[in-house]
User: Which sequence fits this backbone?
């Protein structure tokens, strides 16, 4: 019997996928998993799920007819979440631009490499109050990420988080670091105009793009999904993931 959530990608459960898998297990949510080098099969989506999660999973792994099937399921109530990475959005081998699933997401995916690998601070700024972002210290303790996919927001979609890029420098041997804002890009965009909610998170939830976000919080949380490596992460990081998953997958009802 199919489990409520379907998680595709993030390499394997004993590597990058252990982070999201651990957060799902910590919340008590059952999921089926396919690694990034395994094609989706018709049986995997024969029964509609509450949520389909795509993260570092190339578009070529889901043939067009199966993508259309997922689109139909979202139109009937299944949630859809894409998470950023080198094989998400267009990336380096993601190649999602122009696909049926891309057309359903609340962002426009570039037709060229959209990766932003950042060696200077990228702060996450909350732009809109929402159940996904509630009760998290975005202003007093803004998290930092290491990279993201650069997209455009579709008309009618809602931007919850922005990626704020800064240049940092120490001037004249002073102890204080000067931060100069460089640019801003959408980081989390959602849409609930379909029967199934859709969301696009442009950064990764696993190293290396997750950056210090993985340690966000003053407390440590250990989590372990079956078949995955155990993770130890920040309590605010795991709370953010669980609020995101709960909303997109209608698990907040």
Assistant:
């Amino acid at each position: 019997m199919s489990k409520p959530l379907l998680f595709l990608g993030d390499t394997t459960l004993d590597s990058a996928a252990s982070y999201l898998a651990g957060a799902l297990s910590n919340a008590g949510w059952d999921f089926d998993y396919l690694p990034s080098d395994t094609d989706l099969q018709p049986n995997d989506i024969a029964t509609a799920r509450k949520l389909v999660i795509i993260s570092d999973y190339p578009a070529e792994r889901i043939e067009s007819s199966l993508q259309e099937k997922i689109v139909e399921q979202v139109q009937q109530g299944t949630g859809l979440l894409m998470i950023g990475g080198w094989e998400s959005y267009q990336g380096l081998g993601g190649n999602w631009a122009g696909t049926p699933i891309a057309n359903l997401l609340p962002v426009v995916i570039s037709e060229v490499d959209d990766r932003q690998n950042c060696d200077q601070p990228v702060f996450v700024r909350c732009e809109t109050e929402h159940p996904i972002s509630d009760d998290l210290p975005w202003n007093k303790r803004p998290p930092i990420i290491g990279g993201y996919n650069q997209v455009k927001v579709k008309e009618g979609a809602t931007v919850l988080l922005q990626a704020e890029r800064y240049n940092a420098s120490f001037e004249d041997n002073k102890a204080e670091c000067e931060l100069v804002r460089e640019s801003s890009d959408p980081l989390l965009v959602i849409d609930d105009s379909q029967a199934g909610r859709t969301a696009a998170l442009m950064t990764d939830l696993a190293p290396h793009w997750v950056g210090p976000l993985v340690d966000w919080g003053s407390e440590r949380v250990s989590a372990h999904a079956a078949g995955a490596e155990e993770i130890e992460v920040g309590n605010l990081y795991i709370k953010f993931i669980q609020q995101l998953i709960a909303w997109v997958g209608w698990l907040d009802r």
